[in-house]
Design brief:
Elements: E1 2-7, E2 15-20, E3 27-30, H1 38-47
Antiparallel strand pairs: 1-2, 2-3
Length: 61
């Protein structure tokens, strides 16, 4: 899975995340709302399974 963070063209305060299948480009998940800032968008993605590249992986229990 790959995570993408996109800003609507012409709308500086409308960010949305989506999770895509790299091989096909199919969208697997997408945020249910728009966010005012990229920071807020990333924080919501983290709540939905996104792991920033510099964060250590935490194995499931």
């Amino acid at each position: 899975m790959e995570w993408e963070f996109k800003q609507d063209p012409g709308e500086p305060h409308r960010w949305r995340w989506q999770c895509v299948e790299p091989a096909t480009g199919s969208v697997l998940r997408i945020s249910g709302t728009f966010f005012l800032t990229l920071y807020d968008c990333v924080k919501d993605a983290e709540l939905n399974g996104y792991k920033p590249a510099d964060a250590p992986a935490i194995p499931p229990i």
